What we know:
Blueprint: H1 9-19, H2 39-51, H3 61-64, H4 70-76, H5 88-95, H6 122-125, H7 179-200, H8 202-208, H9 215-226, H10 233-240, H11 245-259, H12 333-349
Region (Disordered): 1-40
Amino acid sequence: MPVADAIPEQFQSASSATLSATNDSEGKDNRGTIADGPGTEGMEALLESLARGEEPVGQSSKWQRRNLDLGVDLLINAADERLGVGCRRKVFDVCFNNAATGGKFSSASEPHLNASPLESDHHECNSADTQGCTRCNIMEPAICCDVHNPTDFSSYETHIPKTPRATQHSRLPKYTKDKYDYKLESTLLDWCDEKTSAVYGWACLNDDGPVIMSDATLDRIVNCTHHHKIQTCQDLRRETGWIDSDLYSNEVLALIKSHSAPCPSIFVSTPLRQGTTTGVPTSTTSPLPQFQLTAMSFSSSSSLPTTWKRQNKCSACGQEGHNVRNHICPNHPSHVIAGNKENLTAQLTTVVPP
């Protein structure tokens, strides 16, 4: 886990504000400020003021609005190149004033930390030994920090695997439970009690209840069974997310099949209303117009009757097979106009004798 993850949220927000680059309204580059990296010289001055307990000067308004300690902020972002710290041990040396205890912690990767060390007093405790007192002597660490020796700290990293996305289950509409649903629910409750007692013992059942299956999982099974969504072991795992579905799915499916409501038939037969004509529905409120019906033939392989479409009847001539707007009707206006034109032409072409 990164170091920033172990810091409280208010500290992380302040450190993110420290690292954010800000530009003024004129578009000038604000490099040199703390928000974008003060550089090596500026960071040395910042650390010195931190060691003296002084508030750093020249900070932006965003920095001043935060209550995060400067040492914590620099420790979190020590690996960031824009700040110019470059070492977490350097922050500890400045914050705890390690130079006053006999010299800064030296490191081969950080030679600047050995600047002007004070004399150590470890020889005063044990003058007989050339190495001095082993308790007072400040030993040079072999490993500096995770910035300079990242491989030595790799064993402390925490890699949390990303949880795979759960399979999307069905969305069930609201419904009213019937006798099949209540029977299945009661059967599943009895099964949970028996299975918990058999697997974990009667004491577990008495103290913790039926831990083999949660109430939410049981209700989900009943709801999905009402809508016929669970037919296989894969359906049970997808719809409920039950962690023990691989172990007890066959037993639960057997209970579902024995206590679930029967599936409705896809062929729904609607009874015909009683009428004067056999096989023809009639209405009691408004009588239907009389039309010719052909005999309905019933196939031996199918119980559905075969009906024939009725013929249209023309209201102009009384014949069937067309309507009044069809041109084949002898009384259509086009035939009348054509006949009048022929009579008019015959009259115009008739030669009158002198």
